[in-house]
C-alpha cells in the first residue's frame, strides 16, 4: 500500500470520528437548547427565575449555538478537504498543515464552547433550584 492510500484511509477514519463527535454535539446541544429555553421561558413568566440565572442561561445558550456553528463549519471544512484530496491532490498536500490546523481549531473550539455552555446551563438550574 503506498503512502497516498494509507493517508487517505487514515483521513477517512479521522473524519468518521469527527462526524460522530459532531453528531453527538448536535443532538445534545439541540436538545439542551430546546428544553432549557422552553423551561426558562415558562419559569420566567411565573417569576421563579432570578436575574442571575437568566443571564447565565443566556450565556449557555449562546455557547451551545456557537458550538453547533463551529461543528457545522468543521463538517463543511472536512467536505472541502475531501474534495481537495480527490480532485486537487497537490493543493491539499501543499496546504495540509494549514487545513488540518483549521480543522483542529474549529473542533477544539466547538467542543470547548459546548462544554462551557452545558456547564452554564447547570449553573443556571442550580441557582433556580437554590432559591
Strand content: under 5%
Element string (H = helix, E = strand): HHHH
- The parts where pLDDT drops under 50 for at least 5 residues are none
Compute the separation of the termini in Å.
Answer: 64 Å
For the biggest sheet, the summary is: none
Residues in helix, %: over 70%
- Average of the residue pLDDT scores: 85
Number of helices: 4
Shape label: elongated
Counted beta strands: 0
Structural Rg: 20 Å
Structural class determined from secondary elements? mainly alpha
Q: What do you see in this structure?
A:
The chain has 131 residues and is an all-alpha fold. It has 4 helices and no strands. The chain has helices spanning 3-45, 51-87, 89-94, 96-130. Helix 1 (3-45) runs antiparallel to helix 2, helix 1 packs parallel to helix 4 (96-130) and helix 2 packs antiparallel against helix 4. The model has no long low-confidence stretch (mean pLDDT 85).
Compact overview of the structure:
By secondary structure, the chain is mostly helical. 92% of the residues lie in helices and 0% in strands.
Short descriptors:
131 residues; single chain; mainly alpha; 4 helices
List the helices and strands and how they pair.
Elements: H1 3-45, H2 51-87, H3 89-94, H4 96-130
